[in-house]
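Continuing the series of single-chain predictions for the mutant panel. This is the parent chain; the variants come on the following pages.
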Amino acid sequence: MSFATDYLAQIETIAARMPLPRVRALHLPPSRPDDPCRTGASGHARGEFCALELDDGSIGLSYVLLDDTLERLRNGPGLADLKGADALALARRYVSGQGVDRTLGFVCANAITRCLYDRAGFRPDGSSDSIGQMDPQAGDAIGMIGLFGPLVERIVAAGAQLTVIELDESAVGERDGWRVTTDAAALETCGKVLSTSTLLLNDTLDRMLAHCHAARWFAMVGPSAGCLPDALFARGVTLLGGSWVEDRAAFIEGLTSGDKDNRKGRKSTSKFALMAEGYPGFGTLLDRAAG
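Parent structure:
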């Protein structure tokens, strides 16, 4: 069983226990002259994401810079038909679809997760730590799956040994105090790992986790991390860090206008950190939401 099938099974269970709102809209970032049509493994040159909104205001997020996903979301046929679509049917594409369909299925499943959280009265703990609370120390062997450029200096400055795993062979090489490789086996000596949540979209999650048996800390962060965490915790993920939409209208305005830094003064999102010890569990959340 893959994470995708495990996650979809939970979404199916939610739909069987309570009525789901239908799809209201898909929100995309604006076009820019320097928009990339294709990216490397991590795609972290610029962290673009889309948002799918349900009729009750629940919002799910997903990364969109894998291959030509963003371009096809903007220009592909059938996207206008998403308004009013059955949320469960769309979420099923996460398993049955490829490319854009898979992204749409995933982002819809994440919106259903937010719907469940809200109905159950659950909110993950807030976090101000962009490094997944891993607390890098001198001598630590740290793995990074996908290049988080702004975090590299912080890890290296702590005296840790940093190894970045990328799929893009052009990025391979030694840097000042850290290195980039395409060989996931390099993770086998890492005691701590920070991973992009893009693994949930590009089918590399289980392959990467298979090399992380020595990791006592595995943090997965990014806009796609708003999923149910049960299947990730069962696979050894210790922390899931994502974005929590606080102000729906301000968030959508910021995303679609490109003003995601909230320069208009409205705090539309906050960061969250979810760990197993603070998570009630899927069954408890479902009972609360449906009862």
